[in-house]
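new request in #modeling-help
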Amino acid sequence: MSSAKSAAAKAKTKRILNIVITYCILLIVAFIFFFPCLWLILASFSKSGSIYTFDGFFPTEYSVASFNQLFTDTVMYNYPKWFLNTLFIAVMSCILGTLLTILTAYVMSRFRFKSRKAMIKTTLVLGMFPSFMGTIAVYLLMTQFNLINQQWGLILIYSGTAPMGYLTQKGFFDTIPYSIDEAARIDGASNFTIFIKFILPLSKPILVFTALTSFAWPWSDFILPKMLLIDQDLYTVAVGLMSLDETQFSRFAAGSIIIAIPIIVLYFCLVKYMINGMSAGAVKE
Amino acid sequence: MADLSLKHIYKVYPNGTKAVNDFNMRISDKEFIVFVGPSGCGKSTVLRMIAGLEPITAGELKIGDVVVNDMEPKDRDIAMVFQNYALYPHMTIYENIAFGLRMKRVPKDEIDRRVKEAAEILGITDYLKRKPKEMSGGQRQRVALGRAIVREPKVMLLDEPLSNLDAKLRTQMRSEIVKLHKKLNTTFIYVTHDQVEAMTMGTRIVVMKSGFIQQIDTPKNLYKYPSNKFVAGFIGTPQMNFFEGTLKKVGDEVVIDFAGSDAKITVPYSMMMKTTPSYLNGDKPVIIGLRAEDISLDEEKVQKSAAKIKVKISHTEELGTETLVYGDIDMNGDGFAETNTRVIIKSGGFKDYTPDEVLEAALDISAVHLFDKDTEESILPRIPEYNYVDCVSRGGKLSFSGVNIAIPPAICLDEGACELLIPPTAITFGGDIPAEVEGCEDISGKVLISLEIGERRMFALSDRKLPEGKTAISIDLKQVAVNMGGEQVISPMPTVNTLNGTFSMVKSKVQRSDGKKQKVRTYYANIAGKQLVMPEEVYLKMFSALSGRKVYNTTFDYEFTPYDFTLAQDGLEGEVQAMLDYGSELFAKVKVGGSILYIKAENEVAGKVFLLPEMAKVSVIEKERGIRIV
């Protein structure tokens, strides 16, 4: 009887120890990830504005002046313009990129045609190369098409490159039973009707995921806008902030915080759609 | 409401797998057809080809009078119920059922009326606002049925609709589908692997195996007259007992010797009249099939029976109304392993049998089935392949049972005893040979006439029943084979002439009525160095069977009957080898290239001739994949 009790006590101690260790590891990881953010948030409230006046890691005095400056002092650094530029590029790239990615994935998932497998393999192999490897080629192409220093040039690259990562979406479409398409075809639906009326409504999770990733990339990208945009009026936030003077660090930090807000809001609004089980009840599993 | 016709339908996948082989069938309006067979036999593929969800490699599919090979599923006026329901998960039940009608742009109030009517029939009126995930399996299947019936299709296709339901629900839905068929009065095609479903639902059943049709018949006929061992074993529970053995005709009796045991029975030859005679010599192994209910352990029956064997009982399975008794006709057998001596006997309910007890069992020989051991085809067919007739050739006449037939010049036969192999199709009514109609039997749309000619029983085929009594027949000797001294000395005249060739296209320019030149493509069959113009309906089928330019690099067999040729000034060049005079008809044996052709001739011809085949009547076979394209 007593041995059973001691075994139970041992098991309880082990369970508590496991929980403690797990939480400790999680806290350390969370701290490592969150610390830079915390530091950036605090830096954005620095009164002096320069990183050199910090007392060690953190600013000595705090104020919201940097946030005010972003929207009031627009003569040299027009943050609201950059913000609108970024929003325009990101929204257009998101719409076009999502559309192209979803259509590519649908075609690859549902249609059987010659060289389909070869195309899948090619995109898979091409995806293994880092995207900046083609930067110079892209620059030359943009020059040829006279799209340097134009926002539509950027939108074209973002939305044109997006379908290369269609495999995740294809994987999702593959899980929607093909018999639904067949039943709809018998009912008189065309391929387009099937896509609009059946595939899209059943693909909300992957649509949201695709839209978010298509939005997030142009929203936070630096390399391509830096390379293609010359006029300060066309700058995106990332390029604009980089052009700030080094004494304007708190302004830089404030600009970074504001640019992060929309994507966080978007994520929290859309996360509820990123759940599985949309096709529950369609077929016998 | 429509008839369906499937002619030489093939399905070959790009990797060369042949899923369906030469599928031929005619389905009448309002029939309930069941495709049954083991997994991978091609039954669902045929159904999907009818639905238009699977392209047809070769062949012709007609719904009503319209060829629908290349028609979209929605235009075929069919509806399909899928095995996994395939409901639209984001739509309500009402929307699911109404979707097809909305696509057809049926007025809203009409949609509402039809949806509610279908829901009423299927008992799902209360669930119309629900989503599929809120319903049970049985209810979902009803929705799937509702979606199909609301379209009022010509043909309802059901692909294993009950296989996801539990046993009780399946039985209930089975009767509901049969009820639905009667109510809707439309053609149903139902696919299942469950022979009980097939037997209880179908007006006709198609048994399939490895892409081939094994037999098409009514449930009763499939059970009573299986055409091969596969059908015999597939239909019926428990499975038919199969024994190996030999048959030996001794006088008016046949001795059935069961291999692997001492069992041996003697039965009158009159019970085995239709058995192919070559199996009655006692040297060819055969499979003897008897159903469990055709073997009895009942003492009274055993005492009365002339055909009885000893069975060593091994174990029993009590099923309530009946007991299945397992045993072995080999006294050393264990009765458990599926050997060719193991026997299963149906006995009355709850009867006790002692294991290892040896009992006598009575066999109902009138219900015996016989199969060739190698081909597994029935050697006791309902329509015998040949009438075997012992006769004598003397003085230019064939004599048997008091009948004398003049030997036509086409048949060069020595004098002496011989055996005639007369196919039932070779016997036609009206002629100068007296005969007596003994009885008629309806077999799959044909009528088998049992005739008494002299003292000999023979079978003929007719398209209608004939009254019993005296009649007169004639025998088409070009269909008859003659054996003499154990060897075939005369073969029937071939009914098909095969010519090997290729296919080609020639572009040319012709002048139109307005003076402009127009490019024209002409397609040819290249046979024996001659180009013969292909009719459009033939080359279109060839293009649909062979995609791209493959059609130009493929060798074909072009088949014609002897009646499809005319003698002309130009055409296939041939050399007449012989004239075959069958009395009423004259044929020429002509050598064309490396092939021998038999063609119908009006007069005697000799030497070099030119033959013009009627290309509209050609049959085209792709040799590589063995596909009959036309």
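bot summary: The mean pLDDT of chain A is 87.
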